[in-house]
Amino acid sequence: MSDFLQFVFSGLTVGAIYALVGIGFALIYNASHVINFAQGEFVMIGGMATVALIDLGVPLLPAALVAIAIAALVGVALEKLAIEPARNAGVVTLIIITIGASILVRGVVEVVLGKQFHRLPSFSGDQPILVGGATLHPQSLWIVGALVVLVVGLKLFFDRHPFGKAILATAHNRLAAQLVGIEVKTVLVASFALSAAFGAIGGILTAPLTLTQYDVGVMLGVKGFCAAILGGLGSPFGAVLGGLIVGLAEALAAGYVSSAYKDVVAFVMILLVLFFMPSGLFGTKGTERV
Amino acid sequence: MTSLEVAGLAKSFGGVTAVDDVTFSITPGHIHSIIGPNGAGKTTLFNLVAGLYVPTSGTVRLAGQDVTALAPHQRAALGLGRTFQNLQIFFNMSAIENVMVGRHLRRRAGFLGSLFALPSAWADNREARAQAARLMARVGLEAYLDAEADAMPYGALKRLEIARALAAEPSLLMLDEPAAGLNPTETQEIDRLIQSIAADGITVVLVEHDMKLVMGISDHIIVLDHGRLLAQGTPAEVARDPQVVAAYLGGEPA
Amino acid sequence: MANPALGRWGGLIVLIVVVAALPLVLPNKFYYDIAVKTGLNALVCVGLNLLIGYAGQISLGHAAFFALGGYASAVLTTRYEWNGFLALGAGAVATGIVAYLVARPILRLKGHYLAMATLAFGIIVSLVLNREIWLTGGPDGITVPTLRLGDMRLRSAETWYWITGGALVVVTYLALNLIHSPSGRAIRALHGSEVAAETLGIDVARTKTMVFVLSAVIAAIAGSLFAHADRFITPNEAGFLRSVELVTMVVLGGMASTFGAIVGAALLTVLPQALAGFDEFKHIVLGAILVGTMIFLPKGLVPSLGALIRRWRR
Ligand SMILES: Nc1ncnc2c1ncn2[C@@H]1O[C@H](COP(=O)(O)OP(=O)(O)OP(=O)(O)O)[C@@H](O)[C@H]1O
Ligand SMILES: [Mg+2]
Fold this sequence. Notes:
The complex is a heterotrimer.
Chain A: H1 2-32, H2 39-55, H3 60-83, H4 91-113, E1 129-131, E2 134-136, H5 138-160, H6 162-172, H7 174-179, H8 184-210, H9 217-230, H10 236-256, H11 262-276
Antiparallel strand pairs in A: 1-2
Helix pairs in contact in A: 1-5, 1-6, 1-8, 1-9, 1-10, 2-3, 2-4, 2-8, 2-9, 3-8, 5-6, 5-8, 6-8, 9-10, 9-11, 10-11
Chain B: E1 4-13, E2 16-26, E3 31-35, H1 42-50, E4 57-62, E5 65-66, H2 72-77, E6 80-82, H3 95-101, H4 111-115, H5 119-138, H6 154-167, E7 172-176, H7 184-199, E8 203-207, H8 211-217, E9 220-225, E10 228-233, H9 235-240, H10 242-249
Parallel strand pairs in B: 3-8, 3-9, 6-7, 7-8
Antiparallel strand pairs in B: 1-2, 1-4, 4-5, 9-10
Helix pairs in contact in B: 3-5, 3-6, 5-6
Chain C: H1 4-21, H2 29-54, H3 62-78, H4 84-107, H5 111-131, H6 133-136, E1 142-143, E2 147-149, E3 152-154, H7 157-179, H8 182-192, H9 194-199, H10 204-230, E4 232-233, H11 240-253, H12 258-274, H13 282-296, H14 301-313
Antiparallel strand pairs in C: 1-4, 2-3
Helix pairs in contact in C: 1-7, 2-7, 2-8, 2-10, 2-11, 2-12, 3-4, 3-5, 3-10, 4-10, 7-10, 8-10, 11-12
The structure holds adenosine-5'-triphosphate (ATP) and magnesium ion (MG).
Magnesium ion is lined by residues 42-43, 85 of chain B.
């Protein structure tokens, strides 16, 4: 039982990060119908920039805030410089553009900050908390807590704030949104900034647990993509569920089946889901119009 | 013997019932038209017959055979051809290649024959090109043989779809608004083309909003409204039908 | 172009001439090795282009097929002492069967979902290659014996240059045949409009499966040749980034252009070598080139240049 609890703790911790990355995929997909393969790089930027600033003597909180701002700026730059000029390109071309951007970002970080691993100190020490016979790292609480706060905030933003509503409206029907006077361009930029910020927050929160390096974004991006697809593309809240499911499945598989194959779990799961429910767990299915 | 027979056919999308318990049959030869206001379910009906949509209920028979469970390509192999209201051109090919794809069911070379350029593949290519060129001339596109499809005007693309469908030598041809967006001269050409297709013994099912065209060339008309079959008969009978008149004038049926 | 066939076979002749003449300017073994790598990548890309460029189906997991071929050769020749050519054939067949089995469920998907599924497939294969150390040697890779033809040991860089060049010419010839055949038109029709293709009697699922299997088998053969040419293979060959690299070569050179795929493969193989002096900046340059080409020449290099030349002639 305590084993199980232990696996659930680690599953939820990792899953929360996948969820944050997944939300980012969903936000950008909603605004632009682009799958942003550079999503994982935002996570990496968050962690790496915070580490670099702390090395310069900046305290944690301002360092984190600046790192989030840097990631958001990179997100905006990505939209303005790479996505917008290729507005009418096909799916494959857009995928390649975001992949190119991710290689570029990795390259820049590699040159500026080097290839070494970095570790951020834990926010509230490393003294594990005992819960029902299992141990919980305080950082896990930070991660899951941040996810909860961000998801609730996002929900309120979409439901209450006029700009949040505008983002939803654009996702639902771009043309109609334009007709009622919504600045679609602003929505696009905001979506990229927001999703970059979410990724960066994830990166900062996990850096104390997992180390960070210029190329940690690749696998995280792919797993976040899994989360987003599992939750039904374009549904930020579906992506949260998707992320948590992937994280839990990985942790349970690592615990009970084979830790060597924990990474395979997410991908086998996504294949099975796609084979049997081609639009994800929570996606809507329609008949393609001819 | 009927060419096409639908019985109790229905299709709903979420809350919308696009086709609602429609039953009719179409005799071989002749020109049959399906008319109805926008959103009446005409295109949906075509898609059901072609096998692109799975019906909510009901059956489709082609030449007496129940094809309800068959895939679109299997229905094509039974002699069903069609064009599309929203153009479905292969924009990644030249005009003549579009029509050559129409010869797919008549090819002799298989995948390996194609890969190794066996004589059968050569023969297929020669035959397909000759037929395609002939059909393009027939629909008045001889000037566009080697044009890229994405560089052709709308009216030409409409005719290209007809040529492509004819290339498969269908016995039943469904045309979805072939005259939409065409000018009067072009419409007249389409009118003549449809008649010449029917004269070749191909059963034509036409969906069209141009009433002058429909009334002029149809032998038999089926009227749909809100997914339901409202009336059918000769052009004269349909034009006299009070329900049809009401549907078209937007009032309540008498 | 007045006669499209002229361009097609003209291109093949240019390829043959380039392959035949290149040794005149290759100064040493190092350059031969790069040429062999280029040729093997080009081989994979010609096949992958049939899938992506012509059939319009993305695959972000094609490196898996390359690696499956390579590992089949490696494992069968080292652990089971098979004849190299037999192993190559077995690897191609086995990879073809794997591709056939995954093709149907995967190729029902479209767009981003297809991208996700192929990506997942590729990552699963690469993880298995990493983990099954008893069979594959794990992350450290596995040494592959020299390929033998009778008593001849195919070892020198020159020998491999001719093997690769020959294979590339043959596969290019087959690809050109296919594209301009009834089956090839069916394949291209999928890209143009699946719906229209179906209503013309094309069995969409079957046609997709055919191209998928063909491109996988070509990748597997290239992988086997690679394993023997390098005499070493690691699971990196199956990795996500390697799959991405292959797709990038195809798109950069020009989708739906066989010679574009070859040019793309050549550029992205040679460029990193040329940038070796600026190792640090390699990724920046590569990323910038990718983004830039996609924005300014979205059709890829060869088709865009072709259009430019045609316009300039007029
Ligand atoms: N794939 C689909 N998904 C959801 N609703 C659909 C779909 N296809 C058609 N509909 C709906 O079904 C109804 C009938 O549409 P259909 O296109 O068959 O009409 P139509 O008679 O062809 O109209 P028009 O004359 O405008 O072409 C409409 O309300 C339409 O919105
Ligand atoms: Mg219609």
